[in-house]
Predict the structure of 2-phospho-L-lactate guanylyltransferase.
Amino acid sequence: MHALVPFAAERPKTRLATVLSPDERRSFADAMLSDVLSALEEAGFSPRLLATESTGRDVPETVDDRPLTEAVNAALVDHDPSPDRPLAVVAADLALATPAALSWLTADGDVVIAPGRGGGTNALAVRHPGFRVDYHGASYLDHLRRARDVGASVREVDSWRLATDVDEPSDLVEVLVHGEREARDWLVDAGFELETGDGRVDLTRTG
Amino acid sequence: MHALVPFAAERPKTRLATVLSPDERRSFADAMLSDVLSALEEAGFSPRLLATESTGRDVPETVDDRPLTEAVNAALVDHDPSPDRPLAVVAADLALATPAALSWLTADGDVVIAPGRGGGTNALAVRHPGFRVDYHGASYLDHLRRARDVGASVREVDSWRLATDVDEPSDLVEVLVHGEREARDWLVDAGFELETGDGRVDLTRTG
């Protein structure tokens, strides 16, 4: 299955600004993107970057500097998905994604949807030509509505690894505890450690 | 499979104090508990409450006012789990849990573990007599270590519905978007609504 991976190349992960410098955010976002691309490939997907500017990576790439929703919808129109020609759309910051978790996207359904926290949508597989995305607000609910409006069947993917997009400092704890790839190594190399007192788990940075 | 559901009956959900009164927190925690118990029963489990004081519910109940870790470990010793006699331990605040998600706990493995956010552990199925819990700190990592120490095989359950325990006001958004049972109805009746501007989803309360 083809898999589109939208990536904001120029100023990624602004909500990590309290713990990472702009250069570090770019480097960490690159590591997460590498993890998503390699997990997709291991799961048998053919990934294509949908980047706001050229990344120079050795992976098929479409450059589109429009906002996320418009750029993804243009790609959906261009791909014209059908049951024989599905298109997945997978967020670039799913640092916990494993090939097994991504494989759930290949399940039957005109629209297969992996929710993100806060009403978001972290991954989709689209097999219906009339489906469009809307990433503003509670996109999960909007995507259910859109699927219903065009008569597309929906399947929810119940995966915590796909539900965990990395946006905020507290999300880095998840990467340190459960990450298995480059993004976790990046954080360890940058000096991040878990601080586990008696209560909740916090993050510290040394060195 | 028997399923133990620990429940702090006297002062539940203190981290929701900014949005719910003490009486409301008790009532909302009751609704979540009802959801977990009914989902367990629909999935074929035999639930037993492990409550800090008697709840008066029509469900088998053990009263133990010791801290969570001690009370669960006493129940594990008492049950003496084995492959033929597994014991599940399921948090009472998994308001998104469905029978399908809970059924993953019946998969093979001496210790089947559903992680929670922040390095936590939201649900377990134990088939090994030597396994013990430790809910302090990064319990997920502690539980992996304990399983390794006693030679127990481990299986991770990748379920976002089981990973989502409801502790903080932002978690109520998940219940409103994805809940299907009493806890969602409780929030709606209490006047909570999603506020979806152009960006992230917030919570408002009316009436």
